[in-house]
């Protein structure tokens, strides 16, 4: 095997996390990330170790390694290159292409304690690993976990392989974990349970009987995500029911959903092939409970719950919007991966025919490229250079991913704005010229129990005004009893001429102003002797002396030195 190249070492260091904990020497990956000359020096040392095919002098401190111990960064880099080359060698020399398939997953019990060195050497020789790589590996054999993943054409071959593995594991003084074993037999493209596989007299459970979970995703004999969709519905229903049964106030229940239940749903939604129609049904179920938590009527629109460009915004996220962003991020991670095997694998991210994620990602990319041609445009009375936008051409891989995800959110928000115009009375807020208000959880904690409900129903015209009561067929006439006109929400709040003439709109303001005026008038009428203050001088302190205490005369109010003031209040 050839010596490690500088490019291989550079790729390993680049992919490593800078915040990973170092070994007792205290040298992290960040040192080699920031010091190219030091990385070049490390490259020359690793080449020397590779040529000698012996790492006992330079990496002998790994003999004290145990499961929870920390490895040296230099050793991690060295063996990462070796592991990558062995993987490439094994894949290139595997020429089996079976038509039938039998898969068996095996896991050894207590494999972390120790593994005989002879077993490792036998396995390396069996798979024809080059001698130079075997010599390097045999100098490092502490803490190896042994796992078998074997495929064969027929179940008969699988039984022979299991018998051979049983003999090998018994010779190595090991045993298999019964609960961790799984098998899958496919005959002519169909899963069958006719053939049973056993090891040491114990039957290996089939994926059809006991599904297996990996990275939050369940795998069964069907190899489909239909069961995962049913599990998601059950998880959402049980989570909302638990939140509803708690004795917390409504706004606290909404907070538990936002920071407790929603993050638990995002990972299964991202890794499983869930159509957008299923996610929309989940959002309908969630919105129903959120309206109940916040004291809103069932007819309250989802735009008021999840909108980000409305006049009153609450800190609750939409499941559909989060799902679209997560799927787009997942697709970009696979497509733009630096590992060629991942990016060229052709992995498809399925989200249904209603919203294909591949087209949803291509459209924002085209839009962002078009914006680079148009340049940054100002809105309203903004001056030149007010908006600073990130250009697509100058953005890196991570910045481009963020731009695409932000554009997907903007498209979703534009769709909400288009629907809000068609709402009729509930969409009158689109004609307001008032600034937007974004509520935070800290502000919501200070609200009274029904204050948030009143504000939301006020913005979307859901209060029981005479006009709404007539529309809901609860009253006969929407006439104002003061001015004899149709009593809409705007008429009640600020457009009734009779209420304006009688001072009803400014009554609270006038009461506060009257209290202030009475207090100021009483203070003005008080007779106070006028104090004449002489000139004040700065007192300098000589060297070796201390500063004398100076009494400062504080004034209680601005009326203290005046007796000829007049007060007028309107």
Helix content: 40-55%
Q: Name the shape in a single word.
A: extended
> Which stretches of 5+ consecutive residues score pLDDT under 50?
56-68, 142-146
Number of helices: 21
What Rg do the Cα atoms give?
A: 37 Å
Report the average pLDDT across residues.
Answer: 80
Class inferred from helices and paired strands: alpha+beta
The biggest beta sheet reads:
5 strands, antiparallel
Structural topology:
Blueprint: H1 6-15, H2 29-34, H3 36-52, H4 73-92, E1 101-109, H5 117-126, H6 131-138, E2 147-152, H7 155-171, E3 175-176, E4 182-187, E5 190-191, E6 198-199, E7 202-203, E8 212-214, E9 217-219, H8 226-245, H9 250-271, H10 276-294, H11 303-306, E10 312-313, H12 319-335, H13 340-343, H14 357-374, H15 397-421, E11 437-438, H16 441-445, H17 451-459, H18 466-471, H19 489-495, H20 497-501, H21 507-525
Parallel strand pairs: 10-11
Antiparallel strand pairs: 1-2, 1-3, 1-4, 4-5, 6-7, 8-9
Short description:
The protein has 21 helices and eleven strands.
